[in-house]
C-alpha cells in the first residue's frame, strides 16, 4: 500500500464505542412511544442511519420524523456522554496527523452530536472535516464521505482510506473508489464486511496503525 493522502473515519464502532448510550436512548424513546424495548430493540442497531432503524420498527411519515426527534432529545442529554474512545485510536490519529494526512469523519450520527462527542473526548483537533446527518437532509454514507473529502481538499482516489465497521462504510468506499478498511473491533461482523467487499480487515485500531507505518 502507498501512504494515503487522507483517511476518512466512521465514528460509531470505529473511533468510539457508543453502544451503551445508543441502546439507552433507543430504549427510552420506545418507552415514550408506548413500545416495549425488551421485545423490539434490534440486535443490528448501530450503523444504519437513525431513520432507517426506526423505519425497521414500523415508524413512517410524520411519525418517523417525530420519533427521531424524541430520540435526539434523549441523546442530547444521555448519549453524548455514554461513549468512549477505542484502544489504539489516539495512537493511530497521532501517527496520521504527524505524517500530514488529511483526516475526516463521515458518520450517520446527527452532526452536532458527533462534533460534541469528538470535542468531549479530545479528538476534534485531529479532524479537518466532521460531517453527518442533519435536520435538513438524510444523506447516505457515500454523500457524507464525498463532502468530507471536498472539505479536506483531497479528491476521491484508490489511495484514500475509508475506515468503518459496517457494510455502509464499505459500500460508500466502493462507490467513491476508495480503499475500504473494515474495522472488526466495531459492531459489524467479518462476514458482513467481507460480503460488502472490504479490501482490508483489521482486528484493532493498532493493526491499522501498523499498516500505516508500513506505507
Give an overview in words.
- β7, α9 (190-196) and β8 (200-202) form a beta-alpha-beta unit.
- The chain has a six-stranded parallel beta sheet, sandwiched between helices. The protein has a two-stranded antiparallel ribbon with strand order 2-3.
- The protein has helices at 19-32, 37-40, 50-56, 61-77, 89-98, 111-120, 141-152, 167-176, 190-196, 205-213; strands at 6-9, 16-17, 84-85, 102-110, 129-133, 161-164, 179-183, 200-202.
- α8 (167-176) packs parallel to α9.
- The protein has ten helices and eight strands.
- It has two domains: 6-17 and 84-213, 3-Layer(aba) Sandwich (Rossmann fold); 19-81, DNA polymerase, domain 1 (Orthogonal Bundle), CATH 1.10.150.
Question: Keywords for this structure?
Answer:
DNA polymerase, domain 1; 8 strands; 2 domains; six-stranded parallel beta sheet; Rossmann fold; alpha/beta
Amino acid at each position: 500500500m502507498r501512504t494515503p493522502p487522507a483517511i476518512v473515519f466512521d465514528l460509531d464502532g470505529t473511533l468510539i464505542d457508543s453502544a451503551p448510550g445508543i441502546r439507552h436512548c433507543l430504549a427510552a424513546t420506545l418507552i415514550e412511544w408506548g413500545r416495549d424495548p425488551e421485545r423490539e430493540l434490534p440486535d443490528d442497531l448501530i450503523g444504519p442511519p437513525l431513520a432507517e432503524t426506526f423505519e425497521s420498527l414500523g415508524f413512517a411519515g410524520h411519525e418517523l420524523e417525530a420519533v427521531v426527534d424524541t430520540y435526539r432529545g434523549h441523546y442530547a442529554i444521555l448519549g453524548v456522554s455514554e461513549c468512549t474512545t477505542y484502544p489504539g485510536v489516539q495512537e493511530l490519529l497521532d501517527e496520521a496527523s504527524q505524517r500530514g494526512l488529511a483526516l475526516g469523519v463521515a458518520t450517520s450520527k446527527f452532526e452536532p452530536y458527533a462534533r460534541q462527542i469528538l470535542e468531549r473526548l479530545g479528538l476534534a483537533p485531529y479532524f479537518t472535516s466532521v460531517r453527518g446527518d442533519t435536520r435538513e437532509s438524510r444523506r447516505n454514507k457515500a454523500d457524507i464521505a464525498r463532502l468530507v473529502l471536498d472539505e479536506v481538499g483531497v479528491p476521491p482516489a484508490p489511495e484514500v482510506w475509508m475506515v468503518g465497521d459496517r457494510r455502509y462504510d464499505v459500500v460508500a468506499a466502493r462507490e467513491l473508489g476508495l480503499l475500504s478498511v473494515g474495522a472488526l473491533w466495531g459492531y459489524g461482523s467479518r462476514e458482513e464486511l467481507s460480503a460488502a467487499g472490504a479490501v482490508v480487515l483489521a482486528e484493532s485500531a493498532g493493526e491499522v496503525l501498523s499498516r500505516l507505518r508500513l506505507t
